[in-house]
Amino acid sequence: MYKPVWMIALLALGLTMIGCGGGGSSSANVNGNWTATLMSSGGQPVYSFTTTLTETGGSGLNITNFTFTSTGSCFVSGQTTETGSFSLSGDFSGSVQGTFGMTVTGAQNVLTLQGGIGANNTLTGNWSVTGSSCSGAGTFIFTRM
Description:
By secondary structure, the protein is α+β, with helices and mostly antiparallel strands. The chain has helices at residues 3-21, 24-28; strands at 32-40, 45-55, 60-68, 81-90, 96-105, 109-117, 122-131, 136-144.
């Protein structure tokens, strides 16, 4: 008599779990190799770099293999310190949202990026540079390599 009730409950739980895991995790996973393009407010490329991002638990983000691929005098590859954060939130319908933050500190300048998860497995947002020798602002896009 109770078997059908348990079977229905178990089936409903299984279907719920399939619905929860179906779409959000792979597109919201920040772990991996990325290339970033930072554009001016006029849409012209200003900075570009490649890096490896790894979530460290909570909202921590480990940034390694950071290399500027554009030339410029504001930052020198190998002479910067990078820190970051990444957090996710979502619901059982597979709607995932996240925030992304990164700071690149050079000898005289600081690059700050703030954004979130964009479409098609990207990170997007706004950036700004402040310091004694450079300044600027615009938008960025990170694309998984």
